[in-house]
Every structure is written in C-alpha cells, then in structure tokens.
Amino acid sequence: MNAPSSPYRSGFACFVGRPNAGKSTLTNALVGTKVAITSDRPQTTRHTVRGIVHRPDSQLVLVDTPGLHKPRTLLGERLNDLVRTTWAEVDVIGFCVPADQKLGPGDKFIAKELAEIRKTPKVAIVTKTDLVDSKRLAEQLIAVHQLGAELGIEWAEIIPVSAVGDQQVQLVAELLAKLLPEGVPLYPDGDLTDEPEQTMVAELIREAALEGVRDELPHSLAVVVEEMIPREGRPADRPLLDIHANVYIERQSQKAIVIGAKGARLKHVGTTARKQIEALLGTPVYLDLHVKVAKDWQRDPKQLRKLGF
Ligand SMILES: Nc1nc2c(ncn2[C@@H]2O[C@H](COP(=O)(O)OP(=O)(O)OP(=O)(O)O)[C@@H](O)[C@H]2O)c(=O)[nH]1
C-alpha cells in the first residue's frame, strides 16, 4: 500500500552569507545551469537573480541577493535595503558559511541581522566541505550551532554541502523544500529563471569587463543592454542575435582601463562575454559594446534607476 503522498510545496528561498561564502555556486548547482554569476571576488551578485528548482513534489524559487555590507554610497545603502526586503519576503533563508574559514565578524554581523527576522525559518548551510577534513567540518558545524544559540536563532537544519564536489546538493534542495508552504507551482516547469534575459546578459558582460581590473574599478562599472534583436534576413538554421550594450564607468580616466591599448582589452571582454552569452541563450550572438561615462552614477538616484538599481 502506498503511503499518503506528501503535499505539494512551493515558495521562495534565499541564501545569505558574507561575500565568497559560495551562495552563487550553490544556487547554480541546485538549478543546474549558470544563472547567477560566480567569481573569486566578493560582491559580484548585484541583481536579484532567481533560479527555480523543480522537483516532483515541490518547486523552490531561489532568490539570490547581493551581500550585506557596510554602506559607503547610495548604491551600498540601496543594496542593503534590497537584502533586508528580500529576507522578509522569502519562505526560508539559507545562511551560508564556508567550512574552510573560522566564523568571523562578517558572519556574526549577518547572523545578528537574521535573528531580527523572526518568523522565517532559517537553515544553516556549511559550504565548501570538499576543502576541509571531517574534524574541521565537525568543528564548524558546532560553531554554527553555537552562534545560533548565542543569538537566539533556532536553525531548522544545519547542512554541510559541497557545490563544487556535488556532495549533498540534492539534500539541500530537499530540506529547503520541506520548509516551504503547501501550494501550487509558481512557475511553469522548465523555467530556470524569471530574471529578464537582458539582465543576465548584462551581468555576463559586467563580469567579463571587471576581470583583472576589479582593484581599479571596484564598483564603478555598470552595464545596460540596450537592445537584443534577431538579425533580419538570416536563414532559419543560421540565426544571429544582435546585442547592443553600454558599459558605464564613472570617470573619463577609467575609459582607458576598460578599452585598453588600441581597444585590445574591450575586444577581449567582448569575445569572452559573447561566448558566455551564446552558451546561456543557445544562439550565435553579435555583441556590440560601447563604453560611456556616466559621472558619479553611484551617487545619483536618477542614474541608478536608469542602470537598473
Ligand atoms: N572548493 C569549493 N569552492 C567553492 C565551493 N562553492 C563555491 N566555491 C568557490 O568560492 C568562491 C566564491 O563562490 P561564490 O559562489 O561566488 O560566492 P558568493 O557567496 O556567491 O559570493 P558573492 O557573490 O561575492 O556574495 C568561488 O571561487 C567558488 O568557486 C565549493 O563547494 N567548493
């Protein structure tokens, strides 16, 4: 005899944690395709990118938030507001801490903020377990438990996972799904993300444009995709998508950094981004990039809106 089947569950989850905790990588591993942008450097995830995990008995919509950080500019403040709003709206929060680093002030700062969001169930996720031995992992699991106890957070689960080593990734999905409310699917099957394609394309270009020059242009670069149109008159089996995008920087002096000697760097950025966009969209792409100066865009609310913040 079959046991009564469990109810269908659906809802939203977000991963929080300090920069480099492995949130984007875990999101990608769960969703099974590259929707958020990962990198070795902190704070690459600017936009709220959702990935959707479809399972027979549940649908988990992952909302990827930027890292909470000490705001120094209007953009910083906006990002932090966005993070808190997201936290209050989701059905479950996954607090990510890397296994290979001792809990520090950054983790505590975030956990303290998390403790304020009372109603939402919270799951602690110890990431990058492939980087440590079992003794170190056990210590980290205990430390996370203790941090929760100190701050009055009762973790619904504490889950060790390696997104890179593909260990326990499915368990994370399962345990998060269990904490969702009963409901119907929120998105049609097969949807990986509801983030407009243009935003993902812009992220890929931004990522390529920042590669190697992050120290010089930490937060001064934004990308807006102006247009994505299929080239007319192409045979059906050889389509081409024309993409026009603007790369905004804050000062004239930064132009040379982005463009490089005789335009060599921008050309490389274009090639790198184009390959990634083609992989993402599954179609050949012609990518046209322009570098423009938008003075002090980080401090100007009007510019921020134009640039999608
Ligand atoms: N070895 C190992 N490395 C990982 C794992 N998960 C993430 N990483 C690496 O850790 C770094 C940071 O990962 P991200 O997923 O970009 O981290 P994040 O928390 O999204 O970072 P921000 O976007 O800066 O907030 C990258 O270099 C990843 O390749 C893992 O399971 N194992």
TrEMBL record:
It is a peripheral membrane protein. The keyword Magnesium does not apply. Residues 43-47 are annotated as: G2. Residues 17-24 are annotated as: G1. GO terms for cellular component: cytosol; plasma membrane. Residues 127-130 are annotated as: G4. Its main location: cytoplasm. Keywords: Cell membrane, Cytoplasm, GTP-binding, Membrane, Nucleotide-binding, Ribosome biogenesis, RNA-binding, rRNA-binding. It comes from the Bacteria. SUPFAM superfamilies: P-loop containing nucleoside triphosphate hydrolases, Prokaryotic type KH domain (KH-domain type II). It is found in: Cytoplasm; Cell membrane. Residues 213-295 form the KH type-2 domain. Residues 9-182 form the Era-type G domain. InterPro entries: G_ERA_dom, GTP-bd, GTPase_Era-like, KH_dom-like_a/b, KH_dom_type_2, KH_sf_prok-type, P-loop_NTPase, Small_GTP-bd. One of its GO terms (molecular function) is ribosomal small subunit binding. Residues 64-67 are annotated as: G3. Belongs to the TRAFAC class TrmE-Era-EngA-EngB-Septin-like GTPase superfamily. Era GTPase family. An essential GTPase that binds both GDP and GTP, with rapid nucleotide exchange. Plays a role in 16S rRNA processing and 30S ribosomal subunit biogenesis and possibly also in cell cycle regulation and energy metabolism. Monomer. This is GTPase Era. It comes from Kitasatospora setae (strain ATCC 33774 / DSM 43861 / JCM 3304 / KCC A-0304 / NBRC 14216 / KM-6054). The lineage of its organism: Bacteria, Bacillati, Actinomycetota, Actinomycetes, Kitasatosporales.
